[in-house]
Amino acid sequence: MSSRKSKSSNLIQADYVSQVAPTVKNLPAMLETCVQSLGWKDPLEKELAVHSSIFAWEILWTEKPGGLQSMGSHSQVQRILRERFCHQSPHGNLFGVQVQYKHLIELLKRTAIHGESNSVLIIGPRGSGKTMLINHALKELMEVEGVSENILQVHLNGLLQINDKIALKEITRQLNLENVVGDKVFGSFAENLSFLLEALKKGDRTSSCPVIFILDEFDLFAHHKNQTLLYNLLDISQSAQTPVVIIGLTCRLDILELLEKRVKSRFSHRQIHLMNSFSFPQYLKIFKEQLSLPSIFPEKIFAEKWNENVQSLSEDRSVKEVLQKHFNVSKNLRSLHMLLMLALNRVTPSHPFITAADLMEANQLCSMDSKGNIVHGLSVLEICLIIAMKHLNDIYEEEPFNFQMVYNEFQKFVQRKAHSVYNFEKPVVMKAFEHLQQLELIRPMERTSVNAQREYQLMKLLLDNTQIMNALQKYPNCPTDVRQWATSSLSWL
């Protein structure tokens, strides 16, 4: 089945090349016309220019199949799809959140059109589409006639605006109130706050521009001192002043428990929950839609062949297996976008379409064990110390250990095998042990005291047995006796 699909992909590429090939045949005439328009009189110069250009194009064509058009097309594809994957572009489709989207857009329209103040929390795990949902809703709202010129937006992030003073300055900047302030200098947080509130309170429901406040990482604003900013914004939303809507985005289900009583009493208690509840067939459909090129793509032939290749991939059994594994680990679209981004990076002028092999390699990169990869670069001595720690964990049931215990366990192995090759001095073994700590494969159980002896400081291994054994299987030129020691039972020791 997979070979049939790969043949299909090759046919798509061959068909694409055959359709753009006539352009190459017309190159001599086209270049001759260009040379004449440049006004070169010398026949030798004209002939040299034409033949040099044809030779250059032939190199591009022979070395990079489909190079004439795909040379530009592949970079356009990567630009469009990367923007879709990385920036929560509002030009795509929403998946599985139509009910929540309808609720949110109605709320925004009531504020923008009818001057009704509101507040709402959008709650969902990271990668569930909270930002994409609000971006889509704002895009639709701005397309309503007469709304885009008469509405203001303020975007705040709890990671950037770490206190109320910084947040107020950012609100002032985004509302363009610096021009009103002029050279006035605010001496305190209270003055800044009172000026902003006065500016918002001057209007009423009919004459003022509605303001949309979007607070990303809303739970971090709840940690600000006295929650002054949240209190005053929600207080405005409850009064007949400038119409505002406060939209909080958070991944914490217990967000209401973080709010003070006075803040909670002014919140509308509207909540929109996002949960990735779609099935695998829907996930497969999302895969196709996220990889497909839009109808407005400038290279129509390339776009058609690209979309045919995407359809072929979605029917490939090996691709379905990769997506099923990915789906079982995480349903969120952010992880799917990461998978597709890694596969997209393989697209070049000579490799203009994504293949099943690209997706399989991308899946391996996504599921790669970073700590296991670190083990591949360790010395044999360091590997032996990790195996000694593994055996200590098995014997003492995950209890902490110290260097002296590890060294004694290592010495048992050296004496039993009678190998001089593993007979290292104790300071050398200590250096290897410290290197493992620097790599964060082991960590101390408590902060190191100045007077404490390093040999007796309690440590914990940050690798489990499965990670160790998998890493040893891939370790280059691992000695046989070391591998046998790792797999040996406790009675052997």
Automatic annotation (TrEMBL):
It comes from Ovis ammon polii. Keywords: ATP-binding, DNA replication, DNA-binding, Nucleotide-binding, Nucleus. GO terms for biological process: DNA replication initiation. Its main location: nucleus. It is found in: Nucleus. Component of the origin recognition complex (ORC) that binds origins of replication. GO terms for cellular component: cytoplasm; nuclear origin of replication recognition complex. Belongs to the ORC4 family. The keyword Transport does not apply. The lineage of its organism: Eukaryota, Metazoa, Chordata, Craniata, Vertebrata. SUPFAM superfamilies: P-loop containing nucleoside triphosphate hydrolases. This is Origin recognition complex subunit 4. It comes from the Eukaryota. Residues 116-273 form the AAA+ ATPase domain. PANTHER family: ORIGIN RECOGNITION COMPLEX SUBUNIT 4. Component of ORC, a complex composed of at least 6 subunits: ORC1, ORC2, ORC3, ORC4, ORC5 and ORC6. ORC is regulated in a cell-cycle dependent manner. It is sequentially assembled at the exit from anaphase of mitosis and disassembled as cells enter S phase. Interacts with DBF4. Interacts with POLQ. Pfam families: AAA_16 (PF13191), ORC4_C (PF14629). GO terms for molecular function: ATP binding; DNA replication origin binding. The keyword Membrane does not apply.
